[in-house]
């Protein structure tokens, strides 16, 4: 274990250092780079939380417009606002799911204590982060580049860990694990949306049938 501690904290073993340098230029110690990745993910979580708060404000504002339109018997504007509200809630659901998924990855990164843990943890984490990045492109375009940097950092750490320890990557198992993380995040996000946001007021034409109802 003391030998591993040397690899983990300092990567100062000459043989290990030379092998890592062969795979990635100036790799740096693995633990500090993991800590950096964790901090960067936490920054993204905070940004997603702020975005969700702004979407909740817009949600409340448009919901009030729907109620006002219904009270005025203005079904046309009520349906327009309802469709807008549906889009905002869809965006908020995606943001909440991404936030939950990234929080799960942060928790997992914080549990890493051995070199082998890096490979087991980061392989599915990479898949989750790619999915989160793709999902946020339409909602938060600026997040694509930032999450891409995190993905690149974790990828380099994964390559280094695999090279140092001679580990093989089981992408099939990793993808299954990643799908579970995303599915759980989606389920929790859906539940939170139901708990936090009121349903469309009774008497409003359904959003799916709003075109027919207002024609």
Question: What's the gist of this structure?
Answer:
With 215 residues, the protein is an all-alpha fold.
Keywords:
215 residues, mainly alpha, 8 helices, 80% helix, disordered N terminus, disordered C terminus
How many beta-strand segments? 0
Structural class: mainly alpha
**What is the helical fraction, as a range of percent?**
over 70%
Number of helices: 8
Percentage of residues in strands? under 5%
- How many structurally independent domains? 1
Give the terminus-to-terminus CA distance: 73 Å
Mean pLDDT figure: 78
Query: Quick one: biggest sheet?
Result: none
* Tertiary shape: elongated
Low-confidence segments, given as residue ranges, are: 1-28, 205-215
Radius of gyration from CA coordinates: 23 Å
- Seen as an oligomer or otherwise, the chain set is single chain
How would you spell out the order of helices and strands? HHHHHHHH
What does this structure look like?
The chain has helices spanning 2-9, 14-23, 30-71, 75-109, 115-136, 141-165, 171-196, 210-214. By secondary structure, the protein is mostly helical. Helix 3 runs antiparallel to helix 6.
């Amino acid at each position: 274990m003391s030998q591993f501690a040397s690899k983990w904290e300092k990567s100062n073993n000459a043989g290990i250092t030379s092998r890592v340098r062969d795979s990635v230029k100036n790799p740096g110690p693995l633990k500090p780079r993991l800590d950096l990745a964790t901090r960067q993910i936490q920054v993204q979580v905070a940004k997603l939380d702020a975005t969700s708060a702004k979407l909740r404000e817009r949600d409340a504002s448009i919901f009030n417009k729907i109620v006002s339109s219904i009270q005025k018997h203005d079904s046309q504007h009520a349906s327009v606002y309802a469709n807008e509200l549906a889009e905002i809630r869809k965006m908020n659901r995606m943001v909440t799911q991404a936030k939950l998924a990234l929080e799960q990855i942060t928790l997992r990164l914080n549990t890493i204590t051995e070199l082998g843990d890096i490979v087991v943890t980061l392989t599915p984490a990479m898949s989750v982060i790619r999915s989160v990045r793709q999902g946020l492109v339409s909602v938060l375009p600026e997040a694509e580049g930032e999450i891409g940097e995190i993905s690149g950092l974790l990828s380099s750490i994964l390559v280094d860990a695999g090279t140092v320890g001679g580990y093989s990557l089981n992408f099939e198992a990793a993808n299954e694990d990643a799908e579970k993380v995303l599915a759980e995040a989606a389920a929790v996000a859906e539940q939170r949306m139901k708990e936090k946001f009121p349903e469309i007021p009774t008497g409003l034409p359904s959003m799916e049938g709003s075109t027919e109802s207002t024609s």
